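Hi R.,

Here's the input for the dinuclear copper ion complex you asked about:
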Amino acid sequence: MRRGSILQLILIGVGAGAIATAVAIFVPWLPTPASRQAGRIDFVYWFATVISLFIFAVVAAILIYAVINFRVKDPMDFSDGPPVHGHTTIEIIWTVVPAILVTAISVVSAIVLAQNSHAGSNPLVVRVFGQQFTWTFQYPNGKIFPILRLPIDRGVELEVTAKDVIHSFWVPQFGQKQDAVPGQVNSLVITPDRLGTYPVICTELCGLGHALMRSEAIVMKKADWNSWYRGTSQPAPQPSGGAGVSAGAAIFTQYGCVACHTFTPIPAATGKVGPSLDNLKASAAKAGQQLQDFIKQSIVDPNAYIAPGYQPNVMPQTFGSTIPRNQLDLLVEYLAQNTK
Ligand code: CUA
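And here is the predicted structure with dinuclear copper ion in place:
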């Protein structure tokens, strides 16, 4: 091979490699990791990307060099080039080199996979429930919240499950997804290492409210998280109307009503999937029912009366069996007392 040809190949390869490298580096393909697991996944991503960039540069160099130098001069020449049979050295190279690279990628991936499923000796275990169309998080003290709060630098084991259909738990900055399947508990280990507020997204099509099935994961300083967690075991403040009201508000939050309905007495309830619950008296009158009966029917048999402008079969029809009798009564009473 002539010296000039080798120089030409190298120049084309370096140019193509530089362009591809710039695309890899300067386009923000992945969010900045906020957990150790995501950091490791990022490493695997770059490990495989660097190998791919090198192979791309070699292939692009040979391809472009061939297109330029072996172009047919006569536009009417449609004949094939001379056939080539076997070249042992090249065949050994293009078998051994990819075998080494693919083995390296799989070994690195296997190590990261094993590390990422290890929660350490004293993990914080949080149960994650997906349901149409909200997430709820239950802590070791039994309390349930619509937002996931985690202390920084502590191993967290999420036990992910679903109450109705299949959902999928995903925080992009944590780097991993886990399916939420009814009747099954799937584990997901996260060690948050960056303070901040990140979106919790459902990534499994689960119904009309799927795109709105979002929550937040807040990574807090250890001391802040500890005082928040200690505070949660004290009795909730009672705004007005005694224990029934705050218990009703807790049930409303626990069963995810906040995700789909707007209800002014609860600031977190700003959902737009279902009708607002601020004017239930007018709706009950329109449906020709007594207020409490109307509210109860709307929860346990949501298709019985559909608010104008809304679709049937959006609200889950399972609340009659999932909300215990006494809690259902408290919830109905709470809504009846606080609506207009
Ligand atoms: Cu839940 Cu999509």
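One thing worth noting: The pocket of dinuclear copper ion is lined by residues 130, 133, 167, 202, 204-206, 210, 213 (CB under 6 Å).

Cheers,
M.
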